[in-house]
Design a protein that fits this description.
The structure holds two protein chains of two kinds. Chain A is of the alpha+beta class. Chain A contains ten helices and twelve strands. In chain A, β1 and β2 form a beta hairpin. In chain A, α1 packs antiparallel against α4. Chain B is α/β, with parallel strands linked by helices. Chain B is 40% helix and 22% strand. Chain B has eight helices and twelve strands. Chain B has a five-stranded parallel sheet, with helices on both faces. In chain B, strands 6-7-8-9 form a four-stranded antiparallel sheet, covered by helices on one side. In chain B, α2 runs parallel beside α3. Chain B is elongated, with a radius of gyration of 19 Å. Chain B starts with a strand and ends with a strand. The chains are: A alpha+beta, B alpha/beta.
């Protein structure tokens, strides 16, 4: 069963497991790392913005409320920013009047920041916008706001720049570490995935190994499903069942060919022996004749065995298409009973029949089945006995029962009766003319018609054979 | 009566021919389909025995050609395959009868005789062999003046043997014609039936009419 839409079907389960495990781990790690990175960036950005807004707010307040207090302003602008803050977090402030003249500024402001584009133009409105700007050496975040000197309506532009070079360096450093860690973790994830997949598929490998070891001579071997993971127990059990079925079939087949060879060897041996003896010396015509006649009888037996074997082989072919006709069961029983009437009269056995039904079957096969059954019944029913057929039309089925007052069959033989060449007592059966194919043929005919056969028997009392056929 | 045997297996052809010659037929043998057709074209045959598996032109091809050129020649075909489809195919193509290998020679002989009895056997009202008289209309058989007490099947068996007097009838042929049993079965049933018939028509009398031919079957004749 191929599924061409599934792109991974050509890869081993191990590869697939490794791949998916690795992929999942890597994706999760990337998502988590990205989340933390972005969160950190967001927090920093927010902190920077907060700092700039706070600073501009303080300066605006100072300008508006205490325009004369230049000292405080100076302290805020020059001392706070430049001198007291650590070198990593320097910030710069500049104040411009409406004509872009510097009122106050942190030392070195101009050197570093006068090039910044956003400080060249006055702010559009009072929106507190954070702008990133990089000088050749440093990185900054900038903000400028418009304020008023006291209540004079004289505008002052406050510009604040925060040096985030160090901050950025730290972030870059962490990013690099993160990338490095991620890639090594990815490798570990793939390796781990491989190990896990390997472990998971080990049971499969064991199954493969066990399968490799099975040959016709070691069909009795089974795999112990207890040491298997739960998912594979079913497979293991099915596998064992399949082995049992194959073993059974192979045993049957071996037994069958052995029996067949044996069955053929005896007549062939007789033929050869007789011919050899009669040819080794001159004999009378009558003696030659005697050998030829004996040969003909033996050959007829052989031919009958071959015909029966061929019949069985043909009925076992699942593609066999048989011609079926509408028949009356009673008519067929009567036809076969008439044929056996002479034999029954010899032993003073009464053959009776009751009931009738219509069936859709292959006539010749159905007759052959009845003939084999009646022949057996006559063989094993002592003188003055009786054989009774009952035909009953049931719901959707037709039941035909054959009941005799014969010697019966011991229970241990019943299940083997349908095995080819099986004979309860080979000496007795041979003298009665059987080769042990009668009941196998009956069974194959019954099964070919989707019916069933059951045998029940009481030794010394008689045997009952029940045939059930689906209604046509 | 002239018979052509088209059979590629030498041994089979040889024994068929020997058996048929012994039974008074004139026999030719062709070992492949084309030779067989050539024989049919140049000679006048009453019957062709045709094997299905043949070199050069198989039995089907031969039978088609024979039916086209000689529609009144009887054709009996032999096959090693007891496939129903094959039988049907042979009969549809115009074969008059078929036999499945292995077959008893007596069976073949019986079928050949049936086929060659071009006009149906005269429906006489009675038949007499030695002092045995069989009256078909009254379903009555007598030996001398004594009426034989036969069951209907025994009467059919006797009639069948009497109608083929002098011919050996195989057990399967008897089973098929008397009981309509058309499959291989316990043929000693026929032996039992014959034995019972003999008890009635032969045992009490000086002249025995039913003779067994060991390994082949039975025949009825006055010896």
């Amino acid at each position: 069963m191929s599924n061409d839409n599934f792109p991974f079907q050509h890869y081993s389960i191990k590869t697939r497991l490794t791949f998916f495990y690795g992929l999942t781990t890597i994706l999760l790690l990337i998502v988590i790392s990205l989340f933390f990175y972005l969160t950190t960036m967001h927090i920093l950005h927010h902190a920077n913005k907060q700092f700039l807004s706070d600073e501009t707010a303080i300066l605006s307040k100072l300008l508006e409320n205490q325009p004369e207090n230049l000292l405080a302003l100076k302290q805020e602008v020059i001392d706070n920013s430049y001198i007291e803050t650590s070198s990593e977090y320097r910030f710069y402030i500049r104040m411009l009047d409406e004509k872009n003249r510097t009122i106050l500024q942190t030392p070195h402001f101009g050197k570093a920041l006068s090039q910044a584009d956003c400080f060249k133009n006055p702010p559009d409105n009072n929106e507190k916008k954070v702008v990133h700007w990089n000088s050749p050496t440093n990185k900054f975040v900038l903000m400028q706001v418009k304020s008023y000197l006291g209540h004079t309506q004289k505008p002052v532009i406050i510009q604040v720049a925060l040096d985030i070079t160090y901050q950025q360096a730290v972030i870059n450093y962490y990013s690099k570490i993160l990338a490095l860690t991620l890639s090594s973790i990815m490798l570990i994830a793939i390796a781990l995935g491989y190990l896990i997949a390997n472990r998971a598929t080990r049971s499969l490998n064991r199954l493969t190994e066990a399968t490799h070891k099975i040959t016709v001579s070691s069909l009795h071997q089974r795999i112990d499903p207890k040491c298997w993971p739960k998912e594979l127990t079913g497979l293991g059990m099915a596998f064992n069942e399949m082995l049992a079925r194959i073993e059974n079939a192979v045993t049957h087949l071996t037994q069958f060919s052995g029996d067949l060879a044996h069955e053929l060897r005896t007549p062939v041996n007789n033929l050869m022996g007789e011919a050899e003896i009669v040819l080794s010396r001159t004999h009378t015509i009558a003696e030659y004749r005697e050998v030829l006649e004996s040969h003909l009888e033996e050959l007829q037996r052989l031919s009958q065995i071959i015909e029966n074997i061929l019949f069985l082989a043909r009925t076992e072919n699942p593609k066999l298409d048989i011609r079926k006709e509408q028949i009356s069961v009673l008519n067929e029983i009567t036809l076969i009973s008439e044929f056996y009437q002479a034999m029954a009269d010899e032993k003073n056995i009464r053959i009776t029949s009751e009931g009738d039904a219509t069936l859709h079957v292959n006539t010749i096969m159905f007759e052959r089945m009845l003939s084999n059954l009646l022949s057996n019944a006559l063989k094993y029913t002592p003188e003055n006995g009786s054989i009774h057929f009952t035909t009953r039309q049931l719901d959707h089925t037709v039941e035909i029962t054959l009941k005799d007052t014969g010697i019966g069959i011991a229970a241990e033989h019943i299940p083997k009766l349908f095995n080819r060449f099986y004979r309860i007592d080979s000496a007795r059966a041979r003298s009665a003319g059987g080769v042990g194919l009668g009941l196998p043929i009956v069974k194959s005919i019954v099964e070919l018609h989707h019916g069933s056969i059951t045998i029940t028997s009481t030794p010394e009392k008689g045997t009952q054979i029940k045939l059930i056929f689906p209604e046509s | 009566m002239r018979i052509l045997v088209i059979e590629d297996e030498d041994k089979t052809a040889a024994y068929l021919s020997a058996g048929l010659i012994e039974n008074g037929f004139v026999v030719d043998i062709a070992s492949n389909g084309l030779d067989g057709l050539e024989f049919v074209r140049t000679q006048d045959y009453d019957l062709v025995i045709l094997d299905v598996m043949l070199p050069k032109l198989d039995g089907w091809g031969v039978i088609k050609e024979i039916r086209r050129s000689h529609p009144d020649v009887r054709v009996l075909f032999l096959t090693a395959c007891d496939d129903v489809e094959e039988k049907v195919k042979g009969l549809e193509l115009g074969a008059d009868d078929y036999l499945i290998k292995p077959f008893a020679f007596s069976e073949l002989l019986a079928r050949i005789r049936t086929l060659l009895r071009r006009t149906p056997a005269k429906q006489s009202t009675h038949l007499m062999i030695a002092d045995l008289t069989i009256n078909f209309i009254e379903h009555r058989a007598t030996r001398g003046s004594q009426k034989l007490d036969l069951t209907p099947k025994e009467f059919s068996l006797l009639t069948f043997l009497a109608q083929h007097q002098g011919e050996v009838m195989s057990r399967t042929f008897i089973a098929s014609h008397v009981w309509n049993i058309n499959f291989d079965t316990d043929t000693n049933i026929v032996d039992v039936a014959i034995r019972r018939l003999r008890q009635k028509i032969d045992d009490p009398y000086e002249i025995k009419l039913i003779h067994s031919v060991r390994g082949i079957g039975y025949m009825l004749e006055q010896r």
